[in-house]
Amino acid sequence: MAPPRFVRDTAGFAISQYLSRIVQLLRGIIAARLLGPAAYGSWNALLLVLDYGILSQLGLQQGLDQEIPGAIARGDEAETRRLKQGGVSGMVGLWTVFAVAVGFYLVFAPRRLAEGWGVGGVLLMVLAVLLQELIFYHGTLLRSHGRIGVVSKALSLQAIVGGVVGIGLVFPFGMWGLLEGWLAGQLAALVYLRREGAPIAPLAFVPNAGTRQLLRRGFPIFLFMAASMVLKSVDRIMILKFLSIEALGYYSIGLMGVSMLLYIPDSVSYVLYPRMLATYARSRDADVTAREMLRPLATVAWLMPLIVGVSVFFVREVVALVLPKYLPGVPALSILLFGTLGLALSSIPAFYIMAIQKQVKLLPLALGSIVLDIALIGLFLRLGWKLEGVAAGVSTGYVVYGVGLLIYAASHLATTFRGRAMFVLRSVLPTLWATTLAVTFALVLPPLVPDAYGGWGLAGIEAGLFIALYLAAARALQPRTGIVAMLRQSESPFARMIAGAWSRD
Fold it and tell me: How far apart are CA 290 and CA 411, in angstroms?
């Protein structure tokens, strides 16, 4: 039996994105090694222009996500085209406003953001914002038309071309080579998307009432997503403001690790979102829609702590081998890895909440998590904890945010307080167990292991014990993640053999 389409789409998207992430990781490692912490910190500071520039569309992309599937289902071609034209016209118009605002900023208030780049680098990244918005525009429409495979290939092309070109250019041109490679990847993806999706994604800049309709529908979702994005970037802003570009360079190895790890829950959420939208559009029942996320969420809840728990034992040895100049960033990286588990738990519930159009109710949670982050980071910096304090503060916010989203999701999955509490507990239990094991091993095992087995040997011992105890708990609790069901449906005899070895799913 062939795997369900959701499984195939999720697996295909995840695999392609991980191949892309590998290329980008190589680019990041090579660039970090060649440039050094200060220059690599400048690159990560410049990326803030892209992160916040994407917000200039004010929810038009989210509006397209919400409105286009319904218009397609109704067979209303005129409405579909009007919304598409209104979306792309509005994006370009709002990007123009953003570009002008950045120009004024550069003239009247030059800051660390432009350190090492000058005006030219920042303006090129402003251009990258427009290219990225056009990529998102095409991707949103293609996904709405069921062509997720094209979107997956385009994002992979963007990452691979950008990574390979960036690696090639960083040798002769330094950090400017990274920027040029980034732009090359965006152009390659956009050309491919135009070739595959030109009939689906018109570039006719015809302002119309569709822009306002999309903003009305997408802006509430945008507020929630914007707050989530600020939550994920406030650490970089605080480092730039209170520490230094070089400190941001050390911290960047943590950002690399977080980026890689989050592609698992993000891949699942990206494919699951249209499915939840369709279920809610058909049923108008938030409780029925919530059931779509049960097994994917259980999969993420059990898989991510296993990956993080194993990784954390090896980070110091890997960094010492590959990026020895960045060793001051290892403690922050270790903390961030566990903080990432909070974001992993939040990913699927966040998309569910957008699907049922209740995101405004949770805006206070996102804003509260940001305020908590800023307050804790400020306190920890005052105590002299520096990068470790930044990582601890932002990780706390991640966990609060993730658990808060789980609590809300639980209200649509159980009718009693006990049922809701058990859902949240089952979701966070793997993270609690993994964190307990990792901290215990880090404190207890090093003094007990002879010096001859230090370094990689100690990491291997810790990781082996961790895997054994973590999987023992998973088997004892028999989490119904759906992983075994997916394996049973696989065409691979090896996968089916693994499924058969597991007593029940």
Answer: 10
Buried b (16+ CB within 10 A) or exposed e, 136-173: bbbbbbbbbbebbebbbbbbbbbbbbbbbbbbbbbeee
Q: Which of 116, 148, 127, 126 is nearest to 6 (CA)?
A: 148
Which H helix or E strand runs over 173? Answer: helix 148-173
User: Could you tell me which residues come within 8 angstroms of residue 224 by beta carbon, excluding any fewer than 6 positions away?
Assistant: 350, 353, 354, 359, 360, 362, 363, 366
Q: Three-state DSSP class for 457?
A: helix
Residues whose CB is less than 8 angstroms from the CB of residue 241 and which lie 6 or more positions away in sequence, other chains included: none
Tokens 């090579």 belong to which residue?
Answer: 30
What would the pLDDT profile of 416-473 be if each residue is shown by its tens digit? 888 888 888 888 999 999 999 998 988 887 777 666 666 888 888 888 899 889 888 8
Which three-class secondary structure string do you get for 40-78? HHHHHHHHHHHHHHHHHHCCHHHHHHHHHHHHHHHCCHH
pLDDT tens per residue across span 48-86: 888 889 888 888 888 887 777 777 777 777 777 788 888
Q: Measured between alpha carbons, how far is residue 100 from residues 53, 96, 355, 375 in Å?
A: 12, 6, 34, 32
| Residues 365-422: tens digit of each pLDDT | 888 999 999 999 999 999 989 899 999 999 999 999 999 999 988 888 878 888 888 8
How many angstroms separate the Cα of 94 from the Cα of each of 57, 88, 265, 324, 344?
6, 10, 30, 43, 31
State residue 111's pLDDT score: 66
Structure tokens at 85: 């034209």
- Tokens found for residue 216: 């009305």
Q: Using the Cα atoms of residue 66, residue 68, residue 71 and residue 74 in order, give the sign of their dihedral.
A: negative
- Mean pLDDT of all residues belonging to the chain: 82
Which amino acid, 117? W
What are the residues whose beta carbons fall under 8 Å from the beta carbon of 204, sequence distance 6 or more?
85, 88
**Burial of residue 92 (number of CB atoms within 10 Å: 0-12, 13-18, 19+):** middle
> With DSSP H G I counted as helix, E B as strand and the rest as coil, what are the percentages for the chain, rounded to 5?
85, 0, 15
Sign of the C-alpha dihedral computed for residues 307, 308, 309 and 312 taken in this order: positive
The SS3 assignment for 116 reads coil
Beta-carbon contacts of residue 478 (< 8 Å; ≥ 6 apart): 503, 504, 505
pLDDT tens per residue across span 294-352: 888 888 888 889 889 889 999 999 999 989 999 999 999 999 999 889 889 888 888 88
- What is the SS3 assignment for 358? coil
206 or 401, greater pLDDT: 401
Lowest mean pLDDT among 8-22, 134-148, 206-220: 8-22
